[in-house]
Amino acid sequence: MEFNHKTVLINETVDLLNINPNGVYVDATAGGGGLSYKVASNLSKNGKLICIDQDPDAILACKEKLKEFKNVEIVNDNFSNIYNIVHSLGFDGVDGVVFDLGVSSYQLDTADRGFSYKKEAPLDMRMSKQGQSAYDVVNFFDQGELKRIISEYGEERYASKIAFKIVKAREKKLIQTTTELAEIVKNAIPSFSRRGGGNPARRTFQAIRIYVNNELENLKVSLEDAFKVLKKGGIIVAITFHSLEDKIVKKKMQSWCKGCICPPDFPICTCGKTPSAQMITKKAIKPSAKETEENTRSRSAKLRVCEKI
Fold this sequence. Notes:
Rossmann fold; 7 strands; 42% helix; DNA polymerase, domain 1
């Protein structure tokens, strides 16, 4: 199968990982294996790469992409289980972890996965192809919960109107497809707010996708557990694509890098807290103008890196 996805900031990611050829690395969001291939190519036969993805389509593509490497383990699981995955494979620690977050180009471009508001398909949006789908959320959640999801995860100012329109529409018939939902959202947003700023359904689709896949909570757990399995001197690289992801990554890395938490008026430190990490990137790295021109989906990407000390 062809899993088309162009990894953003791939050269910067590999450079910042500072790969030890004999080290152990984790690609926590392996996708079709593009970034994994670059990492594996920098490892010796004694090095190890663990590839994790919850999407069964990605796992098939990753196995095909990486079939030449004998030192790669490919695991079909959610990255929130990274701690157990690493230890179950017999490793006490790893030298680096990469997170390439968000939805892949393959998932967006494969209509029947139901991620895109541009293509007609059954409402789905499940990365793992298991559990509660977007169809369930849109058709059976009450208006208040829909408003909360769209507002919180989509940062949509018209969340209340959109939730109301969804409930009214499904009273007549259940909402079956992505294009039906996109049209309902469009009609809920005032015409003056639809001018510019991309498709009016973008934020609502993002919100429902994040909720269906529990993306933000899984990210929090995975970052914390990734840091636990990271060796001293190990590197965590995270690429985010929207502000909600980036805030979580930035806040978590800052917490690892923070030292003394005593009140500023204390003459000496009494807490004894020292930093457990240091930031490698003081500010987020963004794609170059050339990369954004070649791959418009890279425009919102931000890369942050820290090292365990």
